[in-house]
Design brief:
The structure is a homodimer. By secondary structure, chain A is an all-alpha fold. In chain A, helix 3 packs across helix 9. Chain A has a two-stranded antiparallel sheet. In chain A, 52% of the residues are buried. The two termini of chain A are 13 Å apart. Helix content of chain A is 74%, strand content 1%. Chain A has a single domain, classed as Farnesyl Diphosphate Synthase, CATH 1.10.600.10. Chain A is built from 14 helices and 2 strands, in the order ααααββαααααααααα. Chains A and B meet through helix 2, helix 6, helix 7 and helix 8 of A and helix 2, helix 6, helix 7 and helix 8 of B.
Chain lengths: 294, 294
């Protein structure tokens, strides 16, 4: 990761974390429910989606803090999806980022409700931000609902579970990943560019850029599962194979997967050039996602 | 129930049911997820919330079909909350309206995702309706997110579970019901009046009207659990007592509960008079909710 991106991310992560907590503290939420929502929000993570969103908005000249509430809403949606995906009836994960998952720390009912609470709060946070125009609110709510809904992330989790224990084609695999992780990354970049004032053609290029980011994200995830350092990635290496998940290395071989990754990184860079922005951060994010070790 | 309200409800229920299905069919949703969403949406129910919403919008002169998408969004939120509340880790109900609950008919993971899918689709349905202005969309999304979120319905379910197996005060009981059922009834009436063009003072009176409707709704639920006909109400009579739930009859005695109900019905009628509408339907709904036998 470039030093510039590292510094940028560090600054933004602090702002995002503090804002996220403030949004949740500002509401009158029953104690245990609030604690459960805060627990997962605080569990950290790279905050790559809100950072992507902020970088995209700034790339088009957004100067003030209007984008921050949307960035936080995105992270709330991401966090809700992790809580629900970890549930015993779903992926049944006990550990996430080295800590007990929400339902392990609290209980299943509380975890489901914390997820529901974060999902609804995301829409509240956008529609309650008076520095956004009504037109911006309506656009952002619609696109976020689409990205996170039963055509997007909810579909992705459903298809992911249905696809376990059988070998998927590369097309099926990418279709699942597009919905499960790609849609929210796409929304993040597009929402940022939209708030920054990008025009329709630029939004389209940013969308293409984000589409390849999503594919890069997943392919690197799969590669790390084969060659990663267990301590870094926070889950057992080889767990995809144990869980009979279809992966890029399995379908293309490790070398093929790495080659595919480089192809996608190039595509992302080309889209970014066409998007008419001079943002080293957006370009650095491509390399960061391609080469991260966790 | 008056004949006029009966006819009105019958007409509206048909429209609502057909529109609800159309919204879900119009989306590209994985087959099993879509089936699960449709299953619960089709499981019927009285559709009292969307009907209240439509009656309120028409009371203020709304003529066209702009309110229908909001009415459907409300029913999606209601349906999602039933699916999640029925889950084994929550209220653990196997039967709802005489049919297997969603997780019994499908499975737990699918039920959780169907709920998530309906919740997000509600926000999509409002923000995707081009006959609403951006100002209306922003207002409706914000108010719906607040009513359904961790200060509203999600809080209500959390507090309801925490309150089991101990005796609540009347104040605690009403605070839980206000969030669990009252908030969405409130939103339904207020959203309808808002779309119909009510002014700020009228909105406030409609809100008061709806607040008492919510209390009436719950008090009659509790009374039916004591004196109702099992066949009509679709769950075993006396199940609140078996489940150690605090109820109005338990706290006030049966006669006291009936007296309280009449007091609330009067309050609702007074608010309606002040709201400056001449809607026999909104008035009939008070009596309907107070005296329903299921």
């Amino acid at each position: 990761m470039t030093y510039a991106l590292k510094t940028y991310m560090k600054d933004k992560v602090e702002l995002i974390n503090s804002q996220l907590e403030q949004f949740i503290y500002a509401m009158q939420i029953p104690e245990r429910l609030q604690a459960s929502m805060l627990y997962s929000v605080r569990a950290g993570g790279k905050r790559i989606r809100p950072i992507l969103m902020l970088a995209a908005s700034e790339a088009y000249g957004e100067q003030d803090n209007r984008a921050m509430s949307v960035a936080c809403a995105i992270e709330m949606i991401h966090t809700y999806s992790l809580i629900h995906d970890d549930l015993p009836s779903m992926d049944d994960d006990d550990i996430r980022r080295g800590q007990p998952t929400n339902h392990k720390q609290f209980d299943e009912a509380t975890a489901i409700l914390a997820g529901d609470g974060l999902l609804t709060t995301a829409f509240y946070t956008i529609s309650n931000n008076d520095s956004l125009s009504d037109n911006e609110k309506a656009y952002l709510v619609k696109e976020l609902a689409k990205a996170s809904g039963p055509e997007g992330m909810v579909a992705g989790q459903m298809l992911d579970m249905e696809g376990e224990n059988r070998t998927l084609t590369l097309e099926e695999l990418e279709s699942i990943h597009r919905r499960k992780t790609g849609e929210l990354l796409r929304f993040s970049a597009v929402a940022g560019a939209f708030i920054g004032g990008a025009n329709a053609q630029q939004l389209e290029e940013i969308e293409t850029y984000a589409k390849y980011l999503g594919l890069l994200f997943q392919i690197q995830d799969d590669i790390l599962d084969v060659i990663g350092d267990e301590h870094h990635i926070g889950k057992p290496v080889g767990s995809d194979q144990t869980n009979h998940k279809s992966t890029y290395p399995q379908l293309l071989g490790l070398d093929g997967a790495i080659e595919q990754k480089e192809h996608y990184a190039l595509k992302a860079k080309q889209a970014l050039e066409k998007a008419g922005v001079d943002s080293s951060y957006l370009e650095d994010i491509i390399d960061y996602i391609s080469n991260r070790n966790k």
